[in-house]
Amino acid sequence: MAAVKPKIINQKSAHRLISNENLQALLLFLLSLGLFLLFWEMGARLKLFAKGMPTASLTITELWYWITHPFYNNGPNDLGIGWNLLISLRRVAIGYTLASIIAVPLGVLVGISKIAFKAFNPYFQLLKPVSPLAWLPLGLYLFRNSELTGIFIITIASIWPTLTNTAFGVANVNPDYLDVSKTLGASRWRTIFKVIIPAALPNIISGLRISMGISWLVIVAAEMLLGTGLGYFIWNEWNNLYIPNILVAIFIIGIVGIILDQIFAYLEKLVSFGRQSS
């Protein structure tokens, strides 16, 4: 029993230390936020910023209005911010899913085959640096539909991180795993699904996480030209020269981006925990 007590004490000390760090971090965040809002409020009132810069209090008031009235509908050009958010999320979900369906299998193929890598790598190197918004005119020309064009741009934008991370993870699977699988007489397909993909899963999830961030970033820019969605909401408020609503939309975009990223961060932790426990 005596040998166990120090370990218990150390665990309690570690938990207490983490709790103290979290509390200090929270207090520092709240202090910095309060100072930032105070600086913003005073700077806007004293005309230290650009002409027409709204105060922090006005922006917070507008934020509260949009949060409490998110789903009003006065026609296609006057939707509540909740409807615009759902439109953006729908486009991202469809385009991102299509990209993942393409990128993961192709990444596995490229990762396990040097021939496939040499054959497809020129396409990757040519298309990966192209800005997703450069595809916007082509998408409008091909589809003649803003909804399909938005999905097309998201698909193009989010393919590359998932594809490259998947290929890297597959190509760097521990050779011992493959040797054991071969020794046991496992088929090629069984090796891929039972050995290669599980071993490469952390890299695949990381690629999916990066792709989601890019998807959410790109759709807002694209929607400024496509109509409807959060991007269109921002552009419409700019045309109305009402800056508070632009800041509200930026805040909501950031919050949704954090939530989406944390979902994938949680998945990464689950995968890492599963690998450690196995």
Q: Identify the CATH class.
A: Mainly Alpha
Oligomer: single chain
The portion of residues forming beta strands comes to: under 5%
CA(first)-CA(last) distance? 29 Å
List the total number of helices. Answer: 10
CATH superfamily: MetI-like
Largest sheet: none
Kindly summarize this structure in a few lines.
The protein contains ten helices and no strands. It has helices at 5-45, 56-68, 81-112, 114-127, 136-143, 146-171, 175-183, 188-226, 230-239, 243-277.
Structure write-up:
It contains ten helices and no strands. The model has no long low-confidence stretch (mean pLDDT 87). By secondary structure, it is an all-alpha fold. It starts with a helix and ends with a helix. Helices cover 82% and strands 0% of the residues. α3 runs parallel beside α6 (146-171), α5 crosses α6 and α8 (188-226) runs antiparallel to α10 (243-277). The chain has a single domain, classed as MetI-like (MetI-like fold), CATH 1.10.3720.10.
